[in-house]
Amino acid sequence: MNGGPVVPGRTSIAVVPSARGFKVSDNGSAMPQDRVYIMSNFWDDLYAAANRRFGNDLNRATGFRETIGFEKSFLDGWASVEMRLPLQTFKASSRLVDDLNAPSTAAGDLSVIFRGSVYRDVQNNNYVTLVWRCAADWAEYLRRHP
């Protein structure tokens, strides 16, 4: 990282947020279904209290995450496979660290999610489902296998 000017005798810690977490409950359902979707999340002033407590000048940290995906059911609705690809953008401002003043955008890990119902009561919309997720860090794979 290309840091800004060094302030002699001053050390500061910046809590830089990450929006790369994954939750099955994000726009998900226990019921296997057929769908195509786009979802969007926005976070404002990320970790502002922690950064003020540490005395650094990181401010106006915002995060955006758009996710595109699809899910396809099979086995007469007892199971499905879903694929998700998130795109994350982080913006902040800092007088000391120049790299934080420009937005940073990165594609997240492509996730493949398998759902399998072990019990379903369609009349009352009750499902017991097992979920298994695998994710691939495609950027790392392509860097190692050009």
Summed up:
With 146 residues, the protein is mainly beta.
Structural features, described:
The N terminus is likely disordered. This protein has one domain. Strands 1, 2, 3, 4, 5 and 6 form a six-stranded antiparallel β-sheet that branches. Helices cover 10% and strands 47% of the residues. The longest helix is centred in the middle third of the chain and has 7 residues. The chain contains two helices and six strands. By secondary structure, it is mainly β.
Uncertain stretches: 1-7
The rough form would be described as: elongated
Percent of residues in helices comes to: under 10%
Largest sheet: 6 strands, antiparallel
Q: Give the count of structural domains.
A: 1
Helix and strand run: EHEEEEEH
Keywords:
single chain, mainly beta, 6-stranded antiparallel beta sheet, elongated, disordered N terminus
Write the layout of secondary structure elements.
Blueprint: E1 35-44, H1 48-54, E2 59-74, E3 79-93, E4 104-107, E5 110-121, E6 126-136, H2 138-144
Antiparallel strand pairs: 1-2, 2-3, 3-4, 3-5, 5-6
